[in-house]
Design a protein that fits this description.
Blueprint lengths: L22 E2 L3 E4 L17 E4 L1 H4 L16 E3 L5 E2 L22 H31 L11 H19 L6 H13 L3 H14 L4 H9 L7 H13 L6 H12 L4 H13 L6 H13 L4 H17 L6 H14 L2 H13 L6 H9 L7 H13 L6 H14 L2 H13 L6 H13 L3 H13 L7 H11 L5 H13 L6 H14 L3 H9 L4 H12 L6 H8 L9 H14 L1
Antiparallel strand pairs: 1-5, 2-3, 2-4
């Protein structure tokens, strides 16, 4: 995915610090991980290990091949002096940083730089913790800034900023960039905009800072706000870069708006900016999220893949994964398998996510044997299965209604020392619902609600309620509805509509049948419509369609219609 993390390139050492011939106390060693990197002159590509100062080490790109510097590529050597590559100036001049903001003294300037570095470290820690929380509990990351650990890190960043201003130091564009990045990664959009407005008032606006502001809105429903900050950056006379457009495309991709993603892509090309593998990956990801026409989305994604290869853009792992997701969403097992194998030959190293995606393909057909074969392939490739991989296997078993296999994979999950998640329980519930065993489904729901480490979701509630619709099992639907509400799950309009549909089938009194013949709501439906008001759930178009077309919700026999008509005539 696109990342807003990059320092302002206007503050790099010039001459570059890696050109220095003198021995000095270096900040970082850096060795480029790219196999195609030529390395510094004289290295012959064999030893690409060089010395960078702290500023240039965090620039974000290799000075020899422009590949992205990953954090694992850097190794601190502050405990010993190190000699830089012998390719520098004749007088052995140390690398000096030009175009930095003015400061009252060298000591103060160093303090400002150290403050920015500490803010960057806090932002990275927040990002890592949010990812961990998302893996552990998917819905928690949505309101990450409410989490105690995340809130503490953000508060530490604010105190650091206050200490900076107390010393009389003027925050620069990098300071605001990392303050916004810190809040953006904590999912606190209000704080991001607060810092963005303060940045503009200070006159220290930078492109990377605006990228951080846009990155905060690369979430579902945030594309308009991201576009607003993009336009404000242009109004300030700051030209967007590839990352700016990539973040906008990411905002479109998360909500499946492939049309708008194409619009920003065309703008990028008009600006004569070359998209990278991540950009193409997000464009393909927008196709994967677009559920309106899977066949068209697949065709469009394949065209993007061909254009990327034609432009000689090296695919990123994100690109491979997004393309695999398109095949998975289209349910095209044959082409997904072919793409997986060809990508592996092209150098893509499949990870646990890639194998899990392949396993999930079988959840639509319930092919347990096929899913187990891919699970074995993952183990043969020395890839350690994750809890998501086991949950995907359970989901396949649930779709097939194969409860014996599901329990076997549940035992394997616990044997691998994983704890069940909401997805685990949901897969087990699906298996029982497909067998019409509501008693056993209720037992698994009970286990989920007793598990203190699992938060029940609205998705599970809707699955349970939808299972009651065909038979009109209103008592069971009420039981599950009340259980989930007590567990803290707030029903939405779709859950309430499900109750209305179940009520229409359940209510078989003479007057209710007569009301359904006339096209009106049944007695139970009226009760649940009033219940929606108590729950502060607003009806939608589907709600009124159900209420006014209840006779279409069930098949009323001609005999029932005749008897209902006679009964009504008796009372007239």
């Amino acid at each position: 995915m696109a990342d807003e993390n990059s320092a302002s390139t206007s503050y790099l050492c010039d001459p570059r610090c890696w050109r220095s011939e003198c021995e000095r106390k270096a900040q970082c060693y850096f060795q480029c991980s790219s196999r195609d990197c030529p390395g510094p002159p004289g290295s012959s590509g064999k030893n690409r290990r060089i010395v960078l100062c702290d500023r240039c080490a965090h620039e974000g790109a290799c000075p020899f091949c422009s590949a992205s510097i990953q954090r694992e590529d850097l190794q601190s050597v502050t405990d010993k002096p190190a000699a830089a590559t012998s390719t520098g100036s004749a007088d052995g001049e140390r690398g000096q940083c030009f175009n930095r903001p003015a400061a009252s003294s060298g000591t103060d300037h160093q303090t400002l730089e150290q403050c920015n570095q500490r803010l960057e470290g806090l932002a990275n820690r927040v990002q890592e913790r949010v990812r961990e929380l998302k893996r552990e509990q998917m819905e928690l990351a949505i309101s990450a800034f409410d989490h105690p650990e995340i809130a503490k890190l953000v508060e530490e960043g604010k105190k650091l900023y206050q200490s900076l201003t107390c010393k009389g130091l003027q925050p620069d564009g990098v300071t605001y960039q990392w303050m916004m990045s810190l809040c953006a990664r904590a999912k606190d959009q209000k704080e991001v905009e607060k810092w963005a407005n303060e940045m503009e008032e200070s006159g220290n606006s930078s492109r990377d800072a605006y990228n951080s502001a846009m990155f905060a809105f690369a979430v579902p429903g945030g594309v308009d706000r991201a576009d607003m900050w993009f336009k404000r950056m242009n109004q300030k006379g700051i030209k967007p870069d590839v990352k700016s457009y990539t973040i906008l495309i990411q905002a479109c991709a998360v909500c499946g708006n492939s049309t708008r993603a194409d619009f920003y892509f065309e703008q990028m090309r008009s600006a004569k900016l070359k998209p990278d593998g991540v950009t193409f990956g997000l464009l393909i990801g927008a196709c994967a999220k677009d559920k309106s026409n899977p066949a068209r989305s697949l065709q469009k994604a394949e065209e993007l893949w061909k254009n990327m290869k034609k432009a000689r853009v090296k695919p990123h792992n994100v690109t491979f994964m997004q393309m695999l997701n398109v095949y998975a969403d289209a349910g095209n097992m044959r082409r997904a398998t072919h793409f997986f194998e060809e990508s592996a030959k092209a150098g893509f190293k499949p990870d646990v996510v890639a194998f899990t995606t392949m396993i999930s393909l079988f959840s639509k057909t319930g092919n347990v044997q096929g899913a187990e074969e891919w699970f074995d392939k993952m183990k043969a490739a020395d890839v350690i299965p994750s809890v998501a991989a086991f949950n995907s296997m359970l989901r396949v078993c649930g779709t097939a209604g194969d409860v014996q296999s599901a329990r076997k994979w549940l035992a394997k999950l616990t044997a691998a020392r994983f704890k069940p998640t909401w997805d685990t329980y949901e897969a087990l519930i699906i298996g029982e619902l497909n067998r019409k065993d509501f008693t056993q489904a209720d037992w698994w729901l009970h286990c989920m609600l007793l598990d203190s480490e699992v938060i029940p979701t609205l998705t599970t509630l809707k699955l349970l309620l939808q299972a009651c619709e065909p038979s009109g099992n209103l008592p069971q639907a009420k039981l599950w509805f009340n259980k989930m509400e007590k567990a803290g799950v707030k029903p939405d309009v779709h859950a309430c509509n499900s109750m209305l549909r179940t009520s229409a089938v359940h209510d078989s009194s003479i007057w209710s049948i007569w009301q359904q013949i006339r096209g009106g709501p049944s007695k139970e439906q009226l009760k649940w419509f009033l219940e929606m008001q108590r729950l502060d759930v607003y009806p939608n178009e589907e709600t009124y369609h159900i209420l006014t077309n209840s006779r279409n919700s069930r098949s009323i026999s001609p005999a029932a219609i005749f008897i209902a008509a006679l009964q009504v005539c008796r009372f007239c």
